Amino acid sequence: MRYYSTAPSSSCREPSSSPSFSSLPDEIAANCLARVSKSQYRSISSVSKGFHSLLSSPEIYAARSQIGATEPRLYLCCESLRTATRCYSWYNLMSLDDDITKKGDAFISVDGAEIEMKTELRLVPVKDSSFQLRARSKEANLAVGSEIYQIGGINKQGKRSRSVCVLDCRSHTQRRAPRMRVARECAKACLLDGSIYVMGGTRKCESWGEVFDLKSQTWKKELLPSPTGDGFDCKFQLLVLGAKIYVITEHNNKYAYDPKQGRWLLLEMGFTGLEWILETCGVWCVLDNLVFKEFSDDLFWYDVSCEKWVIVEGLEALCDTKFCCCYRMIQLVNYGGKLVIVWLVTPQPVLRRNKPPVIPEEKTCFAVIRLEKRLTSSGLAISGEIERLSFSLVHGSYTPLTCLSVLL
């Protein structure tokens, strides 16, 4: 930013230097820097200590939120393989929009088009001061704005936990939230109208679910009973569509919870085939009030109008990006309106004559998919386009478990 003097020049006047950007009040400087992509913050922070302090302060995130300049960032929860006991930690995946590689980019051909693949993304351990922030086994993880809520799980004594920890992804600090009323493991959690709904993880039918108000940071006194009236310990999935919460069970039963009415409804008709999301060999997510699921190298979406799963067009060659080797799907993630597919690739060993086989390194792969809707004579159609392919080398030290998208 430059300032120009309107006073007449004089040959005898000492030349004056223009005020620097750092001379601006912090509030104005934060408002200016909030309009810059967060992918540039690393470079800007290296300019001076003042910039580094401002770009890591709560003020810059408040300014970004106020002007609607937040950007999605991916966080990966991994199981460490370095110790004898299981250890779960969070990693910050460098932005899929950041150009952090120094080795040059690679390209693969998909349907005759060259798709850019970054040679490597870095997984940065999320640390608070000098120690790495941990996660618990069998806990429910939910992204809420710039924070990740870690709910329940197994404590150090091997029992169900009532604990709730909140990871602030802006400052990479962790705080305790009010404990749940009921201890839970392997619970499901979802967000609706400013409240977190936690369900399952206990066999007590009268306390099957509970609600956490984000604004007041309190758990509501009224517990949610099981929709079936019994222990309800069967396999189920929880999803939000519109203004209701839906529970889909492995027994092909479907229930809807209306927060306004405060009661469960058994859906005797509709949503036929939605129980497919319970399949263990695929992953799913809700994006733009639609359910998407990956299965057998294809991406599907659920058409409520005809109660059928339909293939997302334009991604027929997605299988080619998996390198024709063993892979395990991790998650589908709503990445700021785009879809990110996360999977773990395990390349086949390279056999050598009279020598030990070469074991290639595993890779955690990320595909950013831009989705496009269009109306046809037969109804709604959705096509996808691969915008970016990236990977991070696993280096044999961890196994990716959960991927979440937060807004920073």
From TrEMBL:
<feature type="region of interest" description="Disordered">
    <location>
        <begin position="1"/>
        <end position="20"/>
    </location>
</feature>
<dbReference type="InterPro" id="IPR050354">
    <property type="entry name" value="F-box/kelch-repeat_ARATH"/>
</dbReference>
<dbReference type="InterPro" id="IPR015915">
    <property type="entry name" value="Kelch-typ_b-propeller"/>
</dbReference>
<feature type="domain" description="F-box">
    <location>
        <begin position="18"/>
        <end position="64"/>
    </location>
</feature>
<dbReference type="Pfam" id="PF25210">
    <property type="entry name" value="Kelch_FKB95"/>
</dbReference>
<protein>
    <submittedName>
        <fullName>(rape) hypothetical protein</fullName>
    </submittedName>
</protein>
<dbReference type="Pfam" id="PF00646">
    <property type="entry name" value="F-box"/>
</dbReference>
<dbReference type="InterPro" id="IPR036047">
    <property type="entry name" value="F-box-like_dom_sf"/>
</dbReference>
<dbReference type="InterPro" id="IPR057499">
    <property type="entry name" value="Kelch_FKB95"/>
</dbReference>
<dbReference type="InterPro" id="IPR001810">
    <property type="entry name" value="F-box_dom"/>
</dbReference>
